[in-house]
Automatic annotation (TrEMBL):
Keywords, sorted A to Z: DNA-binding, Transcription, Transcription regulation
Protein name as annotated: HTH lysR-type domain-containing protein
Pfam families the UniProt entry points to: HTH_1, LysR_substrate
An example Gene Ontology molecular-function term: sequence-specific DNA binding
Listed SUPFAM superfamilies: Periplasmic binding protein-like II, Winged helix' DNA-binding domain
A biological process from GO: DNA-templated transcription
Organism from which the protein derives: Roseateles aquatilis
Listed CDD domains: PBP2_GcdR_TrpI_HvrB_AmpR_like
Family: Belongs to the LysR transcriptional regulatory family.
InterPro entries, per the entry: LysR-type_TF_proteobact-type, LysR_HTH_N, LysR_subst-bd, WH-like_DNA-bd_sf, WH_DNA-bd_sf
Domain HTH lysR-type per the UniProt entry, residue ranges: 16-73
Organism lineage string: Bacteria, Pseudomonadati, Pseudomonadota, Betaproteobacteria, Burkholderiales
């Protein structure tokens, strides 16, 4: 490939063969001719010769070689920084082209409780529109992994994640829930004041009950006592089993409420949570067509759920 510079007649730059650049990049990133040879399925001498040819073509020394180690020169560092992004883009382009004949795969990172109790019951509505679509869910809690193949994430938080764009998806309404058995017997849970006689169940800490008590201060409540778990699903199961009263998102226990496994003793005492679910995307990176349609579908489902919240 020849590149002629404007206003110059004889100055011509020839782009080195990509195999020379690949050999250099592999040695530079792994700090070893032997390791690079293994990765490239070449002999060590072949890799060394390719690097030498690149150095001769550029007229600079790229590595400082010794019997025990190899390190980049200043020119080598500059070259690696300049070509690394281009090579990564080539890999992505070839991977995308190679997968055009395959069924599309959508990689999504999401919270486990939302996936289990809100997304999964609705998912068939979307996959019926894309019969060949494969969805791979990466489930993470209280962290964002966002590996390269993931296009977007659905995370619970305040809307601020450094390095990502976040768009509001779904807010949740919290209310006390418990087993129907707690509403019966001589110590039945009939009035809000009766909460002081039952164990409170906490999701990770007492913050939710604290906020709820701030909204309903007339209820005598020691919100610091009770059992603590770090899984919202287990929290609902504990409440259904009669271990106490949990403060749960009605949108996420809708099935248990509908089947009578859980009840809301005080349906009028519902709190809108200060956190919410958001869709996270990488900045300055466009979504694929199927990911764009999936996010649009998610927003429509969330808007419908917000307009018709589950009855407490």
């Amino acid at each position: 490939m020849l590149i002629k510079r404007p206003n110059e007649t004889q100055v011509v730059t020839r782009l080195p063969h990509l195999s020379l650049l690949l050999a250099f990049k592999t040695v530079a990133e792994h700090g070893s001719f032997t390791r690079a040879a293994d990765l490239l399925h070449l002999s060590q001498s072949a890799v060394s010769q390719q690097v030498v040819r690149l150095e001769e073509a550029l007229g600079v020394q790229l590595f400082v070689r010794s019997t025990r180690s190899v390190s980049l020169t200043s020119a080598g560092h500059d070259l690696l920084n300049d070509i690394r992004g281009a090579f990564d883009e080539l890999v992505v382009a070839f991977d995308r082209c190679a997968r055009k004949g395959e069924a599309p795969t959508l990689h999504v990172e999401a919270e486990p409780v939302l996936s289990a109790f809100w997304l999964t019951p609705r998912l068939k509505q979307f996959t019926q529109r894309f019969p060949g679509l494969q969805i791979k869910l990466l489930l993470t809690t209280q962290r964002v992994e966002f590996p390269r193949e993931v296009e977007f994430a659905i995370k619970w938080g305040d809307g601020h994640w450094p390095g990502f764009d976040a768009e509001f998806l779904l807010g949740l309404n919290y209310a006390p829930v418990c087993s129907p058995s707690l509403l019966k017997g001589p110590k039945a849970l009939l009035l809000p004041a009766d909460l002081q006689h039952y164990q409170l169940l906490h999701d990770r800490n007492a913050d939710d009950w604290d906020r709820w008590h701030q909204q309903f201060p007339e209820v005598p409540l020691n919100f610091q006592r009770g059992h603590v778990v770090t899984d919202s699903n287990v929290l609902a199961q504990l409440a259904a089993a009669g271990h106490g009263v949990a403060l749960c998102a009605l949108e996420l226990v809708e099935s248990q409420l509908r089947h009578g496994e859980l009840v809301t003793p005080f349906p009028q005492m519902t709190m809108r949570h200060w956190l919410a679910y958001h869709v996270l995307t990488r900045r300055h990176q466009m979504l694929s067509e199927v990911a764009t349609q999936f996010v649009a579908w998610l927003k429509a489902e969330a808007a419908a759920a917000d307009q018709n919240p589950p009855r407490a």
